[in-house]
Amino acid sequence: MRVKQAKPDLQSASLPLQILALLKPGALTVADVAESLDGNESSIRSALNRLEDRGKVVRLISSDGGSGKKTQWGLRVAN
Q1: Can you give the pTM of this predicted structure?
Q2: Could you tell me which residues come within 8 angstroms of residue 4 by beta carbon, excluding any fewer than 6 positions away?
Q3: How many Å apart are CA 44 and CA 42, to the nearest integer?
Q4: Burial classification of residue 47, based on how many CB atoms lie within 10 Å of its CB (0-12 exposed, 13-18 middle, 19 or more buried)
Q5: 14 phi and psi angles, rounded to 5 deg
Q6: Distance set, CA 25 to CA 22, 42, 66, 68 (Å)
Q7: How confident is the model at residue 68 (pLDDT cuts 50, 70, 90)?
Q8: Which residues pair with 63 in a beta bridge?
Q9: DSSP alpha helices (H): ranges in 1-79?
């Protein structure tokens, strides 16, 4: 069963801020973020790469039950 997360009330916020808010509860794939924000995956991926460069998010790899793997993104924990 797949549960869709509620959209945060951040419609006027920048895409990176919207992504950071979505990642607070836990890691998500690019497709999950794009679906939640009604955005395209290319824009989401670009924003995530910029956030990674700034040290805000990290890439996580998790198995998706089959032979393929999907990249998940999560918030970087402050040291």
Answers
A1: 0.77
A2: 35, 36
A3: 5
A4: buried
A5: -65, 160
A6: 7, 23, 25, 24
A7: low
A8: 69
A9: 15-23, 30-37, 41-53
Q: Residue 59: in which H helix or E strand, if any?
A: strand 57-63
3-class DSSP state for residue 18?
helix
Distance, CA of 32 to CA of 19 (rounded, Å): 11
Among 70, 48, 45, residue whose Cα is nearest residue 60: 70
Write down the pLDDT at residue 77.
86
Across the chain, mean pLDDT equals: 85
For the chain, the distance separating the N- and C-terminal CA atoms, rounded to the nearest angstrom, is: 35
The closest of 65, 7, 60 to 30, measured between CA atoms, is 60
What is the SS3 assignment for 43? helix
Say what the pLDDT of residue 76 is.
Answer: 94
Helix-helix angle 41-53:15-23, to 10 degrees: 80
